Amino acid sequence: MSKPELFNWEQLETSLNAARKALDGGVWADVLHNCHQYLAHLPLSVNAEEASPDSLKLFRTFAGSMIAQNHTYDSVVDLLRVKDAFADYVANYLLAQDKKGVQVPTPIPAVEDAHLVLHFCLGLHALVVSRTRDES
Fold first, then answer.
1. d(CA 57, CA 75)
2. In this predicted model, what pLDDT tens digit does every residue of 73-90 receive, in sequence order?
3. Model confidence at 1: pLDDT above 50
4. What angle do CA 57, 45, 56 make, to 5 degrees?
5. Which residues pair with 96 in a beta bridge?
6. Which sign does the torsion angle of CA 72, 128, 57, 133 carry?
7. Phi, psi angle pair for 7, to nearest 5°
8. Strand partners, 97
C-alpha cells in the first residue's frame, strides 16, 4: 500500500503494528492502548477550529475523494464523528469516567474487545490511505 503525501504516517503505522503484535501475544490491554494512540493521533477530524493546516488539507482531500465516490458530505462527517466516538469508547479502557467525571473501574479487556478495536482501526486506516493517496 503506498503512503499518502499529505502526512507522515510512520507514527500511526507504528501504533497499529504494535497493536497487531500485542494481539498476537494475547495482551489485550496493549492492543487497546496502541489503537487509542492511533485514533488520538490520526490527523482527520471534523473540528476545524482544532485542526492544523495539514489536517484541514487531509480532511479536504479525504472528503473530496469520498464525495467523488458518491458519498455525501454529511456521511463523511458522520464517519469522522464515529471515529471520534470510537476513540472515546476505547479511552474508557484506559481511564473510565462517568458523565460527571468521577473515575470508575475500567472495563476488563477481552479478546473480542481487542479484535473489534484493532479491526476498526485497520479498516479506517486502509480507507483513509486509499482515499488520500497522491494520485499524480
1. 18
2. 999 999 999 999 999 999
3. no
4. 15
5. 104
6. negative
7. -155, 145
8. 103
- The CB density around residue 80, as the number of other CB atoms within 10 Å, is 19
Indicate the Cα dihedral angle 17, 13, 72, 68, nearest 10°: -120
Residue of 4 and 125 predicted with greater confidence: 125
> How many residues does the structure list for the chain?
136
- What phi-psi label fits residue 26: left (phi over 0), alpha (psi between -120 and 50 degrees) or beta? left
Q: What is the C-alpha to C-alpha distance for residues 98 and 80, in angstroms, rounded to an integer?
A: 23
Count of CA atoms in the C-beta half-sphere (13 A) of 37: 17
CB 29 within 8 A of CB 48: no
* Grid cell at residue 28: 489485550
Average pLDDT over residues 91-103: 83
Query: What is this structure's pTM?
Result: 0.86
CA distance 132 to 59: 9
SS3 46: coil
Q: Which residue type does 50 have? A: E
For residues 73 and 10, give the distance between their C-alpha atoms in angstroms, rounded to a whole number. Answer: 28
